[in-house]
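INTERNAL AUDIT FORM
Audit reference: QA-55
Scope: verify that the stored structure record matches its stored sequence.
Auditor: D.O.
Record contents follow.
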Amino acid sequence: MNIGDSLAEARRQAGLTITQVGRQTRIRESIIRGIEADDFSGCGGDFYARGHIRSIATVIGLPAEPLIREYDAEHGPPGAMRASEVFEPSTPIKIRERRSPSLSLIVVVVLLAIIGFSVYHLVSAHKANSAVALPRVSATVKPKPKPRPSPSATAAPADVVIHLTANEDCWVQLTSSTDGSQIYMGTIPAGSSMTWTEKHAVKVTLGNPGGIVLTVDGKRETPDTAQPVTLDFSPATSPQSS
């Protein structure tokens, strides 16, 4: 039984239609039909074909690795990834929108403002009462020279801290957005983690975003896609997909 027959049989046993599999994997139905017919020409290359096989097998409950090995035996082992496969994903990428501040946070901020105003009012009243109680003393006070304003120091830009934990093997590349120099490139094996701290904007390319957990400055920034993706991160800014 070939790859397409195995996927089609497992999908039917799982009680799923091609439409349902397409919605869960974000793969076009025409590509799924082609794969079930053992036609991978619509995948856009071997890299995407392996990713589609892995995504479909995961949804229908079929082990993906034997199918990937069978694909490599028929089409050759995975080679160097082309630039078009990395920077031009076949499906649109959606980045989760940041949520607006919750009502509880707004309430806390308002309460802190009220408490601060009350403390300031009490301190001011206490100083006024103390000034009235003290007797006046005649004295000649020489005016102090006004200090010259010192030039304001320019705040150093914050670092961007990128932490990646691989649940599955994932090819990763980091490049500088400033001069295009390469910071890191390689495959992070499942169960491993890596952290990068950069002072300038960087581009992060993920070959298997569905198999990793990505956090930037302590916030989870995993794209909602199973396809290869390139993200831009800058210090104290939100990510932008390329």
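Auditor finding: record pair retrieved intact. DSSP finds seven helices and nine strands in the chain.
Action required: none
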